[in-house]
Amino acid sequence: MKSRRLLLIGAGGIAADYANALKHLNVRHFDVLSRREESARLFAKSYGAERAHWGGLDTLPQLMNEYDAFIVACPIEHLMPYALALADAGKSRVLLEKPLALRSSDVAGLAARFPDFKPWIALNRLFFPSVLELKRRLREQRAVAARFSFTEWVHRIEADKYHPDVLARWGASNCIHVIATCFDLVGTPITFSPYVAGKSALSWHPAGTIFTGAGITDQNVLFVYHADWVSAGRWSIAIDTPEGRYDLEPMESLRFTPKGSIVDTLLVAAPQDGLRAGFPQMLRAWLADEQHDNVGLDALRAHLTSIESMMYPNER
Q: How far apart (Å, rounded) are the C-alpha atoms in residues 59 and 254?
């Protein structure tokens, strides 16, 4: 793992998860930048950052030349401004929290304006041990069909804590966790038949609350999906192969049911180390300069385009 001078931008809960994962990987030398002095100092004291900076985006230009790696873990509405600033400064080692932008057109605009800017998008579920193992197995066993659900427990979402645009595009803000993971495993959709209902059921997400549909990916995998935000449900992914069915439910674990049986076997158990799942694996790969095309801007734009087709078809 290469030694880098690292700046962690953000001082909230996700930034704390990054700090804990960095310490787990024995990365001890990192600093923090927040908007407020109080939060920056408290974060540095609590999570071991060596230096605390504040002033947010106004301060960043004064600090850029001191660092060669940046993790941006701030609220969604601030991600793109930081990305633009880092891209304009020619910074290449950047890890940006998901979803970076709420619309695929904004990601396309960033890529077109800065073609040499190659950040990682922190799709940490792609680095779950369960997902990595399933991806390995799918290289040997051909996926033929997939089913997934991205039902949200809206009764637990504290809407007053989020920007209205983030809430109105909750598909990009949060459902991307499931949708990006499934399509990373079985390919990019090339056809969609989406159905949306419940457009008056939730004031902060006027696009709807019930989402169903089907399609086919560029790997010739048929898929169906279902999400009902006003009923029961949970995030899940099931992938069929000629040998049997793999289940990510919860997504941190992996089970396999062989063809001709109803008895499943636990292949990967959910991590119990207290860290945010996937963060250590993702950070280790990023810090080591590994090549992962599925976490770049092109992959993100494809996932956001899929979400727009599934959840916001009237806006396209």
A: 44
**pLDDT at 3 exceeding the cut of 70:** no
CA 121 – CA 109 distance, rounded (Å): 16
**CA atoms of 222 and 158, how far apart (whole Å):** 35
Identify the residue whose tokens are 């499943």.
264
Structure confidence at residue 82 (pLDDT): 98
How confident is the model over 149-192, as pLDDT tens digits? 999 999 999 999 999 999 999 999 999 999 999 999 999 999 99
| Bridge pairing between strands 69-72 and 94-97 | parallel
- pLDDT at 53 exceeding the cut of 80: yes
Which neighbouring-strand residues pair with 215?
192, 223
Q: What strand order describes the sheet that includes 69-72?
A: 52-54, 30-34, 6-9, 69-72, 94-97, 120-122
Mean pLDDT within 306-313: 96
Phi, psi (rounded to 5 degrees) for 58: -70, -30
Characterize 20-59 residue by residue with b for buried, 16 or more Cβ atoms within 10 angstroms of its Cβ, and e for exposed: bbbeeeebeebbbbbbeeebbbebbeebbbeebbbebeee
Alpha-carbon separation of residue 80 from 15, 30, 42, 91, 312 (angstroms): 17, 22, 25, 14, 21
* Torsion sign across C-alpha atoms 275, 280, 286, 287: positive
Q: Which two tokens stand for residue 295?
A: 């976490």
Q: Residue 1: which pLDDT band, with cuts at 50, 70 and 90?
A: very low
* Greatest pairwise CA separation for the chain in angstroms: 63
Q: What is the mean pLDDT of residues 127-139?
A: 98
Cis peptide, bond prior to residue 119, ω within 30 of zero:
no
Q: Is the pTM higher than 0.85? A: yes
Q: Is the dihedral of CA 112, 118, 122, 123 positive or negative?
A: positive
CA angle (2, 40, 49) in 5-degree steps: 30
Mean pLDDT, the chain, whole residue set: 96
